[in-house]
Specification:
The structure is a single chain. The protein has 385 residues and is an alpha/beta fold. It is built from 13 helices and 11 strands. It has 2 domains: 246 residues, Aspartate Aminotransferase, domain 2; 131 residues, Aspartate Aminotransferase, domain 1, CATH 3.90.1150.10. A 7-stranded mixed beta sheet has the order 1-7-6-5-4-2-3, with helices on both faces. A 4-stranded antiparallel beta sheet has the order 8-9-11-10, with helices on one face. The N and C termini lie far apart (56 Å). The mean pLDDT is 97. The chain binds pyridoxal-5'-phosphate (PLP). The site of pyridoxal-5'-phosphate has 15 residues, from helix 4.
């Protein structure tokens, strides 16, 4: 299936109706025990496609096959959450005594894992400026084992020079890892851009309906076996219902992403004109840090971006947020519905201070009528006055 175009892959990859009595969608396999028919089969356990629920079922295999085809990966490993995809990737490519470079704008829980768990096992973690580009080389040490990127950062939306960083790391045999939850392989394919490991929170755009926690991590022929081994040995696997919903989400990913893109762009342009808004941090707008990198590497934009309000008075901000009916205030993004979430980048930066004054919000633009969404925001901005 890997030679087919994206729309075809999304529709058919991982699908095998003949194996399931003609049922189009791979059924949910609720499995722990998987029996062997003969002792000979048992003796050949390593060759059995399925041997125990935790190490894989036809449901996980379908989802993984589809994601691997999209990523152009040697293999994908489905895991319990986006965060476990992150932790498995980092644990696969670091050991005691190693030095790991992590972008200063990463997803908060990733940062916490690095600081509180990786360090406990003797890995030194250094956070680097998201726009370091080729300059990342200066931070490489003899013992640097992995370079972790998130572009755009899901809170502050800087886009790094991914190709320059991947090239510099490759020359030093440093494994590169990309959290690609924002773009999905539809808008950016990490492995085709010289990155060794691509991971996603499938909780977001892949599943697309705010009802699933699921992660997936994909690798090249060199990196995949280590990822699979780490997940197996840590005992991390995804639930069968979640896998089913993840695969179901993939089927409509392209049409949903197109809608998210056009709606979010329209909203971002509109927000740029609003006096209450100091800055819009949308990778497709020239004002976004790293916009040129976005143009260079990405095929498009998803529906998640940031704004910075001029107002900083929390009482007024609360009045604005509490009055919203459509923009729910909730973590995550990538679902069918719009979200508006306060973020505080200042407390999370160590490589370089976050100097932007003003109140930061992350918006996700869903499928409500765009006029209704704008009207709600306009009313909200009035409550700031
Ligand atoms: C949400 C998110 C994650 C974590 O995903 P979960 O499925 O919630 O564990 C990881 N990376 C990014 C960029 C995210 O936004």
């Amino acid at each position: 299936m890997t030679t087919k175009k994206t729309g075809t892959l999304l529709t058919h990859a991982g699908s095998n109706p003949k194996a399931f009595h003609g049922v189009v969608n791979t059924p949910v396999h609720r499995a722990s025990t998987i029996v062997f028919n003969t002792y000979a089969e048992f003796e050949n356990i390593s060759k059995a496609p399925f041997s125990y629920g935790r190490s894989g079922t036809p449901t996980s295999a379908s989802f993984e096959e589809a994601v691997a085809a999209l990523e152009g990966a040697a293999g994908s490993v489905s895991v319990s959450s986006g965060l476990s995809a992150i932790t498995i990737a980092l644990m696969s490519f670091s050991k005691a005594g190693d030095h790991v470079l992590v972008s200063d704008n990463v997803y908060g829980p990733c940062r916490k894992f690095c600081r509180e768990i990786l360090t406990k096992y003797g890995v030194e973690v250094e956070f680097y400026p998201p726009l370091a580009g080729a300059g990342i080389e200066k931070l490489f040490r003899k013992n640097t084992s992995a370079l972790f990127m998130e572009s755009p950062g899901s809170l502050t939306f800087e886009v790094g020079d991914i190709g320059a960083m991947a090239g510099a790391a490759r020359a030093k045999n440093i494994t590169t890892i990309m959290d690609n939850s924002w773009a999905t392989p539809l808008l950016f394919k990490p492995l085709e851009n010289g990155i060794d490991v691509s991971l996603m929170s499938a909780t977001k755009y892949i599943s697309g309906h705010s009802d699933v926690i699921l992660g997936v991590v994909s690798g090249t022929a060199d990196s995949y076996p280590q990822l699979k081994k780490t997940a197996l040995q840590l005992g991390v696997c995804a639930g069968s219902e979640e896998l089913y919903l993840g695969l179901r989400g993939l089927r409509t990913l392209e049409v949903r992403m197109k809608e998210h893109q056009s709606r979010a762009l329209e909203m971002a342009h509109w927000l740029e004109q609003q006096p209450a808004v100091k800055r819009v941090l949308h990778p497709a707008l020239p004002s976004c840090p790293g916009h040129d990198n976005w143009k260079k590497y990405f095929k498009g934009a998803s529906g998640t971006f940031g704004i910075i309000l001029r107002e900083t008075d929390k009482t007024k901000i609360a009045k604005m947020l509490d009055g919203f009916e459509l923009f729910h205030m909730g973590a995550s993004w990538g679902g069918y519905e719009s979200l508006c979430f306060p973020v505080q980048p200042k407390s999370d930066r160590t490589a370089e201070p976050w100097t932007e004054e003003g109140f930061s919000l992350r918006l996700h633009i869903g499928f409500e009528d765009i006029g209704d969404l704008k009207a709600e925001l306009a009313d909200g901005f009035k409550r700031l006055a």
